[in-house]
Amino acid sequence: MRIDERFAISAPIEKVWSFIRDPHTVAPCIPGCESVEALSANCYRSTVAVVLGPIKARFNVVVQITEEVPPNKIVCVTKGDEGSKASIVSARSEMRLTALDANTTEIACNSEVSIIGRLGKFGFGIMKKRASQIAAEFAAAVQQRMQSAHA
Amino acid sequence: MPEIAFHRPDTVEAAVSLLAGHAGSRCIAGGQTLVAMLNAGLLEAPVLIAVAGIAELNSISFRPNGTVRIGAAVSHRRVAVARELGGSSAVIREAARVIAHPAIRNFGTIGGALAHADPAADYPAAVVAAGASIEIAGRNGRRTLPAQEFFLDYLTTVLEPGEMVTAVLVPNAKAGAAGHYLKFSRVDGDYAIVSIAVTLESEAGICSKASIALGGCGPKPVFDARANSILLGTKCETGIIGKAADILIEMSDPIDDVRASANYRRALIPRLLPRAIRQAWCQIGPSP
Questions:
Q1: What is the band of B206 on the pLDDT scale with cuts at 50, 70, 90?
Q2: Interface predicted TM-score (ipTM) over 0.95
Q3: Which residue of B has its CA nearest to A130?
């Protein structure tokens, strides 16, 4: 399942980069992210809950950053599972930051996500829409937190 | 599969207090979607509360003001042949007729289908176009709200934990009113790729009321008052219907899936809408 999202944040690119690159500032912006723990400078363990109507999932994931070009590009590989519920998720994600002007930064994300197990039985069509909703919530949360941090 | 506790209350009040008393409990009526989802491991329900045996949920009746009350546990098969649903309300009867196939229509219920809120299912668009209301019971009694406000998102409604759907209230069918439900799917008995529910009223050969809702075109039934008002005062001519279709396309946000792409779904709207409207209009108005 391929997910492509882009959104703009009203802040200079360097500030957006340092915000996004720090797991402790970015984690609270990720909808459903319950915890994040740094295993090393480039590797994090996190628990993320996703809800779609009556369907609830909680993934334990490890995010490994495989490439970064500050302040423009970050590539990571995510692997995780649902514990006992036997869904396995893996994703390769790329995030690109572009300065649209001195105070506006566009974030473009694309991910190739694969889900196998019980959630793989659920339609990808609705899952993709849910991913867009999550991206929009993430964008709004980043915007809000960056604004209040600079206020 | 883990063990499931099963309760069979006799009244709505007992069902609601069981729902409130058990975290993670769910109502089961026909179980046509719920059991499949439990089997697939998509859902967990440590406690199931069977509501099909509750008498008041099992009848279709007229209220003094002419409103038709369809109990939540009435099967699709019974709705499909309900004589009470005439005029514009026929849209609900016609939708019931094309849900899945006979075995599922014998067990599946209107309340269950609405509470599940699958945007590609047949009832959601039909009840919105019919101007129906949904009656909900909870610990603090009953509340009723327009069908349009009931659906929030994919598989998500206004139902709070501890609440259940108890009935669908369909407004009085007026003379000179007609409804039609048009479903497009490649395989008989499948979910709709796109469906169109329409109700019309005519006065002296002119459209005096219109209500259109689309299924399969977004996270909930697509409904736009502007598309309805375009038809008012007209004889539902093709050009006019095209303008209504443009608005509905703009309001649609369909999914890409194995059945069809989002673009294909959008492209279906202007092709199906004239057909659906003409089917309803030919029952009440002059040919355009």
A1: very high
A2: no
A3: B154
